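Issue 218. Parser rejects a valid record. Input:
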Amino acid sequence: MRRALTHLLQLPLSVQGRAAMQEETRSVALLELLDADERRAFGVCAPLRGTHRETLDQALSGLQFWSSLCTSMLPLGIPSADFAVSMAEFHLRGMLFPARNRIRVAAFVQGGVGDIEALARDGAFDSRSSVKAKVGRESIEVDRRRIAALLAAMEPHARLRLDANRGMSLAACVELCQGIDADRVEYLEDPLVNPWELEALANQTGMSIALDETILEWMRGEGIPDAIAFAPSVCAHVVRLSCVGRIDRSLRHARLAHERGIRAICSTAYDSSFALRAAAIVASQLDPNADSAHGLGTADLYARDLATPPAMEGEWMETSPLPQLDDAVIEALR
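Output the parser choked on:
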């Protein structure tokens, strides 16, 4: 008979992780699933404040409810919990297996001009085709200086992804992009407060659009029409796994996007290395030709973790079957 356990863990953050998440540790719920032969599989549930609608307490309640049933494949309706359940279920059933042995990953850059210059000296941008940076959190002047530093540090073929998390007005975003070579920008990621203005933004800047928060609203049926979700300017959908929910739902959406000529970019929410390993496998399944660099470059955010990070070589991340977790490691992180 199957059974399931939930463990509440505290993962200490690195300097970069503390800066990104504004806390010292990351609280996560670990779902442990055991089958009748005592084979074990795990799923990680880690809703992020400001990104997920549910709290960890709400997600943990959902996991505990599911654990009492331990058989249902029906979604709980709590995305981060559904992601963890499907991670463990897919692992146990042998369905979480890489479609290729490595995937491309975008570099994720935080900090100011000095930090970017230091990263460049350390070779952080070598052999990277995609580099992602947040914009819209500081003044346009500060963001433009950061963008200029990034473009100077990146290799000539590399392109920027500028993510404003739906925080900018049309006028501000056009001002930010003025004078920037559109060929050096891969896309603007959900930059506008008002998604109805995205097509106007693309026309005024000559830059493509990726949807993240907006495509989640479309998937939830929250008033975003197909005309926005699949507009001519949209080149990519960012599939943030733990916000979408079950892994099979993310894979279905990736197939739909591909049918419409839109790339699916696999992304996480500052997840730990075990969840990153699972996400890398999913990325290999939704992008078997490695056409895109995925948003999984956040393993350095943790000082201690459940598993070793996926190996990286340049922009390439190794994909491999999920490891078994060590009981001593789990116990030490309680």
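Fixed in the parser; the record now loads. Residues 102-318 form a domain with the TIM Barrel fold (CATH 3.20.20.120).
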